Amino acid sequence: QPNWRNQKELLNRFGY
């Protein structure tokens, strides 16, 4: 159960 959705949100937060 990877946290890909969380990763996407984090990327959006950091603006990667």
Automatic annotation (TrEMBL):
Protein name as catalogued: Class II glycyl-tRNA synthetase
Keyword entries, A-Z: Aminoacyl-tRNA synthetase, Ligase
Top-level taxonomy: Bacteria, Bacillati, Mycoplasmatota, Mollicutes, Acholeplasmatales
Example GO molecular function: aminoacyl-tRNA ligase activity
Domain of life of the source: Bacteria
